[in-house]
Write a structure and sequence with these properties.
binds S-adenosylmethionine; Methyltransferase, Cobalt-precorrin-4 Transmethylase, Domain 2; Cobalt-precorrin-4 Transmethylase, domain 1
């Protein structure tokens, strides 16, 4: 029997209308959907984005919703990923395709790549369906161009000691997970003496989307800050 295929689907940052036609077509027929969530008590954000596309499916599907907690402990994280990979592998070995849905795009800081590695892609076929990234979604919501001509756009996943050096060459900096380290980020950006425009977007594409000038102070995980240097 042929093995099933692992399909990574990017569902965009939040607005279901940002789903690609290919993502919708695949979601309507794939037999297994894997949609991780950060805690057992929390619904999956990615699943809520694709919910309307699943409503008029002709066939039933199986939902796998493993917990991928937001913790720093690498050993514990590997245990969670191993468990999810085992469940996905079982379906692939039965010849069933499995679609793993992920916020934004599967190739950008997504848990999809961890799962892909755990599963071992020498044995199973993998397909990636790209999605609108969170930062292009945020830029669109804020009516901002991220880059023109020879401007350099940098994408920063974490605020740490590398940031000041990276910013020296950047014309635009996209900083993810900004609510986790807002004070440190504010200090580093303030130490850059160029004029700048700072916009933060939270829950982009969702009903409670907020766009603010400057930095965010609350702890919402889906927070992105865009800094344009002049
Ligand atoms: C693990 S990364 C996922 C990135 C995603 N794969 C992508 O293509 O954009 C999570 C970070 O993406 C950003 N993000 C994702 N969705 C967002 C949204 N709807 N609004 C604002 N930021 C978002 C936030 O900075 C969040 O902390």
């Amino acid at each position: 029997m042929n093995h099933g295929k692992l399909i990574g689907i990017g569902v965009g940052p939040g607005n279901p209308e940002y789903l690609t036609l290919k993502a919708i077509k695949t979601l309507k027929k794939v037999p297994v959907i894997c949609s991780p969530r950060s805690a057992k008590s929390r619904p999956s954000v990615a699943l809520s984005i694709v919910a309307s596309s699943l409503e008029d499916r002709d066939t039933a599907y199986e939902l796998l919703d493993p917990v991928f907690p937001m913790i720093e402990d690498q050993e514990a994280l590997h245990d969670y990923w191993d468990e999810a990979a085992r469940d996905v592998k079982k379906r692939l070995e039965k010849g069933l395709d499995v679609a793993f849905i992920t916020l934004g795009d599967p190739t950008v800081y997504s848990t999809f790549s961890y799962l892909q590695k755990k599963i071992g892609t020498d044995k199973f076929k993998v397909e990636i369906i790209p999605g609108v990234t969170s930062f292009t979604g945020c830029a669109a919501s804020a009516n901002l161009s991220l880059g023109e001509k020879d401007e350099i756009i940098v994408i920063i996943p974490k605020v740490d000691q590398r940031l000041s050096q990276i910013l020296e060459l950047a014309d635009t900096a996209v900083i993810m997970k900004t609510s986790r380290h807002s004070k440190e980020l504010e200090d580093i950006i303030a130490s850059d003496k160029r004029d700048k425009e700072i916009i933060s977007v939270q829950n982009c594409g969702m009903i409670d989307e907020t766009i603010v000038k400057g930095f965010v102070q609350d702890k919402k995980y889906l927070s992105t800050t865009i800094v344009k240097f002049q």
